[in-house]
Backbone:
């Protein structure tokens, strides 16, 4: 037969072994009882805390607010409070804590003392700060992008960057935000604008390379080619518009939410999930409402389950291994981050602290779980944001291949590698023949499409993992071929020239052919200690100059 035990016993063990700091404080701010985690978070011993006042560790800027809250507790105005405050530990470090305070009263409802719980959220605060900086950087990149970008909701501008404002003659975005987009359209294009909006909203499909005419504040007409797509902005369906390119603006928005648990008396009102578990079977003997909330299962359902039933499959073996060592008295407690699968199938993260309860039963353990799902989500979103920012900074907005910035970095890297290993490095520079005449004849829309086809063909020609194609500037492109001899570079250049010509893109005003062609310069160098990457760029550029000077639609090797 199972031994009977009281909730007071469970609370005392949970109090002593909790991963978060817990304390009992008098109404005048004196510490009456603290647990080891509380001492660890403050850096003070129990004796030092019992001789101190709460104001000795609270940050000065938060002191007055907490004093006022204590008065409200003492006057019976409130019985529960949760807030984020700063405290100063023994090493004079400023730390952040999520502090939950509840009032304990006697049977006559007279206030007795306060139960205080401190969850260290310093790391989360730092993550939030870093994420905000990342979001601010991303927003600044959008605001200051040379490509005009705007967002409108129901035909009214709700966002515009400086380039979008400038294109209609405004000094800054504030002069266009809140204005109907039809105010910036030539009258003959208003109906077309309505059709585009209706199509995007009804189908959810994006549109690219749509011709429009804008009118500026001075009455001038501006020809633009835009791409538009459906997005959610401030919680509403909106349309994002990008001028001159088809780069889709991705907005990083994040809402941080916290799930507050109320203290409802000793064991049942603890702000963290607590469970009493039979270590031999893994069955849940008892639990508090916080565990029900965390897992989605009721206490009755949990009592019929092993903890393995709602533990993520990839974390079960580690948890069981630690539990086995705990029951063998090889350790007094253990702590681990693990994933749980809730009743709805959602995966949540918890910081689990498990200790033996030998005064209850030899093989009973108590588990205290702190929800750290938000922290994990913040870390993941921060990683995604950083990857997006890195991709944005290295990608050419029109063609989608690498830009000049990436070319410079990659060439330096491969130059250094070739020098260390004593291997040849080949650089191919090429540009489109008579491309200005192409734009003058066919327009910039088809000109952009031509550049995209050439970029895609060049990218497909560079077959090896280390080969890189980048837009060098305008209609000029570059191909870096590591560990490639002169013969191999010449062969790859001729293959590229032929494949571009095989695209058969019409060019009736070309002085070389009836189709779009390229001139190619090739240079191969095995770097020495006295040379810089600019050496191979200059060599390839001179070869390209010869190709254009002679017949064009040809290659020349330096």
Residues:
């Amino acid at each position: 037969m199972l031994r009977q035990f009281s909730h007071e016993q469970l609370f005392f063990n949970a109090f002593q072994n909790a991963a978060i700091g817990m304390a009992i404080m008098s109404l005048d701010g004196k510490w009456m009882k603290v647990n080891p985690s509380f001492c660890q978070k403050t850096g003070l011993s129990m004796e030092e805390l019992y001789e101190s006042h709460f104001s000795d560790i609270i940050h000065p800027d938060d002191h007055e607010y907490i004093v006022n809250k204590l008065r409200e507790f003492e006057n019976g105005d409130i019985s529960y409070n949760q807030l984020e405050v700063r405290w100063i530990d023994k090493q004079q470090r400023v730390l952040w804590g999520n502090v939950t305070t509840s009032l304990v009263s006697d049977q006559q409802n007279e206030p007795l003392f306060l139960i205080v719980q401190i969850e260290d959220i310093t790391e989360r605060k730092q993550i939030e700060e870093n994420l905000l900086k990342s979001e601010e950087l991303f927003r600044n990149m959008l605001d200051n992008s040379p490509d005009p970008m705007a967002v409108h909701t129901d035909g009214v501008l709700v966002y515009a960057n400086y380039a979008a404002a400038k294109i209609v003659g405004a000094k800054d975005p504030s002069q266009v935000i809140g204005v109907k987009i039809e105010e910036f359209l030539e009258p003959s294009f208003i109906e077309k604008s309505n059709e585009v909006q209706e199509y995007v909203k009804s189908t959810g499909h994006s549109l690219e390379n749509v011709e429009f005419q804008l009118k500026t504040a001075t009455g001038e007409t501006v020809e633009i080619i835009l791409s538009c797509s459906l997005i959610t902005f401030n919680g509403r369906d909106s349309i994002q518009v990008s001028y001159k390119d088809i780069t889709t603006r991705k907005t990083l928005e994040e809402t941080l939410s916290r799930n507050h648990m109320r203290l409802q008396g000793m064991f049942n009102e603890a702000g963290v999930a607590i469970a009493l578990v039979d270590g031999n079977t893994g069955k849940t003997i008892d639990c508090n409402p916080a565990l029900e909330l965390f897992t989605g299962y009721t206490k009755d359902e949990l009592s019929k389950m092993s903890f393995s039933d709602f533990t993520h499959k990839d974390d079960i073996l580690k948890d069981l291994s630690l539990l086995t060592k705990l029951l063998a008295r090889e350790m007094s407690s253990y702590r681990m981050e693990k994933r749980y699968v809730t009743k709805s199938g959602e995966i949540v993260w918890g910081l689990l602290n498990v200790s033996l309860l030998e005064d209850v039963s030899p093989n009973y353990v108590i588990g205290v779980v702190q929800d750290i799902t938000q922290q994990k989500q913040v870390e993941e979103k921060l990683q995604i944001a950083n990857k997006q920012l890195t991709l944005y900074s290295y990608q050419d907005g029109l063609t989608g291949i690498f830009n000049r910035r990436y070319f410079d970095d990659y060439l330096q890297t491969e130059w250094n590698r070739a020098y260390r290993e004593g291997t040849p490095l080949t650089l191919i520079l090429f540009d489109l023949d008579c491309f200005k005449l192409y734009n003058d004849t066919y327009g910039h829309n088809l000109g952009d499409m031509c550049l995209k086809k050439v970029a895609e063909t060049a990218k497909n020609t560079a077959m090896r993992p280390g080969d890189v194609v980048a837009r060098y500037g305008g209609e000029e492109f570059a191909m870096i071929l590591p560990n490639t001899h002169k013969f191999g570079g010449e062969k790859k250049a001729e293959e590229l020239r032929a494949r571009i010509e095989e695209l058969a893109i019409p060019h009736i005003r070309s002085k070389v052919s009836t189709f779009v062609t390229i001139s190619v310069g090739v240079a191969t160098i095995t770097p020495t200690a006295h040379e810089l990457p600019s050496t191979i760029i200059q060599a390839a550029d001179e070869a390209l100059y010869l190709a254009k000077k002679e017949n064009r639609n040809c290659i020349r090797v330096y």
Notes: The two ends are 92 Å apart (CA to CA). The chain has a mean pLDDT of 84. The longest strand covers residues 221-233.
